[in-house]
Design a protein that fits this description.
The protein is α/β, with parallel strands linked by helices and 345 residues long. It has a seven-stranded mixed sheet with strand order 4-3-2-5-6-9-7, sandwiched between helices. Strands 1-8 form a two-stranded antiparallel ribbon. It has 13 helices and nine strands.
Length: 345
């Protein structure tokens, strides 16, 4: 039996859309290196990216960095109810306007000229009724994008923070992510315990979501051809995150845990503490966390990393000033810590 959405799609057929190659030729567009731009021209691959996002028919989609509109076309052919494209480069406005005009009687498409690092996704769909976080059905809200390599990791960390706070795109519920990354970065995101690629980004991604590497796109499929292949990652927020500690604290601890990957984990973690109490506090932390301090960071499970963070959190509840210590600070800023004494707090 046909769904209402599919019936609607049959009635309101999309008109023929101009090809991306024609639009690029018409407007004499080229990818700019300073924006880390690489165009994906093969519609079979853009369709595959959109299919990886799951059901988007009659849904709500934010596309990040659409460029001339390659993935945009594939999204539109799936008949979302509302598509918002966020593009910083004014050169692509005419091509996106052509796509918008082509679907104006079928799909609501908004073009936002903004830096995605500044854009607030909670403003994208004012008419969307948020779903309960624990609902068995995910909200039909998706973030899809061929991310610029230069800002992809920063963007992901920002979104995971929003996810942890249930704000931004996660104000609507457990919205999904379907994104491209350099293959090495994609492999780090999904890397499990004992994987050589395991790093801070692995933990940050996996504590609040379930990331999956769906498929790999060869670099030669892009124009211009990058020096690396590209991985397509999907991420679905967990109903119950693996930690309830503050995002900023987790990010800080993961940075220290993975700062010296090939050395014992205690070597990185000990730098959380001022020199005068470093040995004592490091021993206490690993004892409380029940973690072997002589493991390498990539050998730690998600749970062991969280236990280290929790043990540190308990220490700074008792000795709040320790949280202000930064071993990377300038010498003049670290000098007062040479006389730090736990008993003086």
């Amino acid at each position: 039996m046909a769904t209402m959405a599919s019936v609607g799609s049959a009635i309101h057929r999309l008109p023929p859309l101009p090809t991306i190659r024609d639009l690029i030729r018409l407007y004499k567009l080229r990818a700019l290196k300073q924006f880390s731009q690489n165009f994906l021209m093969d519609e079979r691959l853009t369709d595959k990216i959109v299919r990886a996002a799951g059901r988007i028919e009659n849904g709500y989609v934010v596309e990040i960095g659409p460029g001339p509109g390659s993935i945009t076309r594939s999204i539109l052919r799936q008949y979302p109810k509302h598509l918002v494209v966020v593009e910083k480069d004014r050169r692509f406005m005419p091509t996106l306007e052509i796509l918008k005009e082509s679907v104006q009687n079928v799909i609501q498409m908004d073009i936002v000229r903004d830096d995605i690092l500044n854009y607030r996704c909670e403003h994208a769909f004012p008419d969307f009724q948020s779903t309960d976080w624990n609902d068995k059905n995910l909200p039909n809200v998706h973030l899809i994008g061929n991310l610029p390599f230069a800002i992809s990791t920063r963007l992901l960390i920002n979104w995971i923070r929003d996810m942890s706070l249930r704000q931004g795109a996660w104000k609507y519920g457990r919205s999904s992510l379907t994104l491209t990354f350099q293959l090495e970065v994609a492999q780090r995101i999904v890397a499990g315990m004992a994987d050589d690629q395991r790093c801070r980004l692995s933990l940050m991604s996996q504590l609040w979501a379930k990331p999956e590497l769906r498929f790999v796109i060869p670099g030669k499929a892009f124009v211009p051809k990058p020096d690396v292949d590209v991985g397509v990652i999907t991420m679905i927020p967990l109903k119950t995150p693996q930690t309830d500690l503050p995002f900023e604290l987790i990010e800080k601890i993961m940075r220290y845990i993975f700062s010296l990957r090939q050395k014992y984990v205690r070597r990185g973690v000990q730098n959380l503490f001022p020199p005068t109490v470093r040995d004592e506090m490091t021993v206490q932390l690993f004892k409380n966390a029940e973690v072997n301090p002589e493991l390498r960071s990539f050998q730690l499970s998600n749970d062991e990393c969280v236990r280290i963070a929790k043990a540190y959190y308990e220490i700074i509840q008792k000795y709040p000033k320790i949280d202000q210590y930064n071993y990377r600070a300038a010498y003049a800023e670290r000098l007062p810590w040479d006389n730090y004494d736990l008993d003086s707090v």
